[in-house]
User: Fold this.
Amino acid sequence: MAETAYKATHRVRNFFYLFFILLIIWLALTSNFHWQELSVGVLVSLVISLILNKNYLGLGFPPFSIKRIAFFIIYIVVLFKEIIKANFDVAYRVIHPKMPIKPGIVVIKTTLKQDIAKLILANSITLTPGTFTLDILGDTLLIHWINVKSENVDEATKIIGEKFEKYLRVIFA
Amino acid sequence: MSEIIGIVVISMGVAFDLFGCIGLVRLPDIYNRLQGATKCVTLGTCLILLGVLIHSGGAMGAKALLCAIFILLTSPTGAHALARGAHKSGVKLWEGSVMDKYADDKEGELDR
Assistant:
């Protein structure tokens, strides 16, 4: 009984997330606020999100709240700062005549539970300085690091994952 | 004014794309090459699209922004799939690499 109620709330939540994402994509693609365009967009998003909402139960989207949105915006800003740092880092390594690289594959741990949170963490790690995710096995992430600073699991977790995880832990708490 | 800023941003994007391509040629193995390809080329292409947004604005800008978001989502995923596939099919790391925890995991102790 409790499980069906849990599933029902998740399906309603996924339905609303899917509906608004699809509607925003439609509005960006048409860039037109005429009522005919809008009604077609609403209708199509409604049908698609009604059919597909049960397909995303496994991802574990968190409930909507103002605090989560605020932290998500801060997270995006941090991510962009890291992406720009990453680019100068890689550009420096590529142009330098001696190529100061010291690559290796290290292991880090994560405390995040939901699949969607792990997905965001892995993709953010790929976009940040000198690291990218090879594989996720349970709570372990395998990272290829272009300049290995520490072979210890805890230290590597602190250097690579912590700056994102502290925001993601709040968003997906 | 917005035209000039747009052209400057597009030029920066092209420069980052160029660095990414130099990295693709110079770096030693597939994993390091993917580093160059994911980071520089992602930001380079996103900057070009951002430049289009600043330059033209309006309907075309909204589409450019949407494309930038899709690239930011798909480029890391594609790189991850390529690297994982390469490692599973036995592509060796460059000889200068210091460690490979993934290959040490033959017994599957890291597995869930």
The two ends of chain B are 56 Å apart (CA to CA).
